[in-house]
Design goal:
Helix content is about 45%, strand content about 25%. By secondary structure, the protein is α+β, with helices and mostly antiparallel strands. The relative contact order is 0.11.
């Protein structure tokens, strides 16, 4: 998560906490000042229960968001996080995608790839959308890509690859031009 996103979430949580506490106190019948907005006045009297509920909920949501922001030790870009004897090892999604792309593009016949990687309980699930060169045996090439990607990622990252799905999205049929 970008630092600006974290800042905005924190500010929104802070505002929710302030509003929640204010509505909660108003719901309890505590008059904060004569110039309190008319919105707070509707929670006085017979609507005191609504003031307590709304104020309590806003306060809880604010504290929850603040806790999520303050307690977030894992970067959203980290796909893997493993403890070792020396400390934590975190590997970002971009790193694993780069390994997948390198392995896939090393197969003869692959022109370009777009990848998606998720970390599931049974291991990494890798989805590859590929553009192939013309005149290749697509099925055989796809099997080689699956095998090479799985082996390369398992060797370099050190975690199990459960699935490698490949979708041949396009064939680049344009021959390269030769300049004389």
């Amino acid at each position: 998560m970008h630092w600006l996103d974290k800042l905005l979430i924190f500010l929104a949580a802070l505002v929710l906490v302030v509003i929640g506490v204010t509505v909660l106190l108003t719901g309890l019948g505590i008059n904060l000042a004569e110039t309190v907005l008319t919105v707070y006045k509707m929670f006085l009297g017979p609507n005191m229960v609504y003031g307590l509920v709304v104020g309590g909920l806003l306060t809880l949501v604010g504290f929850y968001l603040a806790g999520r922001w303050l307690g977030s030790s894992r970067d959203d870009n980290d796909l893997l996080s493993v403890e070792s004897e020396y400390g934590r090892i975190r590997i970002s999604e971009q790193v694993i995608k780069a390994y997948v792309e390198k392995a896939a593009k090393s197969v003869d016949g692959i022109k370009d790839v777009n990848t998606k990687v998720t970390n599931q309980e049974d291991g990494l699930h890798i989805f590859i959308e590929a553009i192939t060169k013309a005149d290749v045996k697509t099925r055989d090439m796809a099997k080689v890509v699956q095998q090479r990607v799985a082996e390369f990622v398992e060797d370099t990252v050190g975690t199990k690859v459960a699935k490698v799905e490949i979708h041949i999205a396009k064939v680049d049929a344009q021959p390269k031009s030769r300049l004389n």
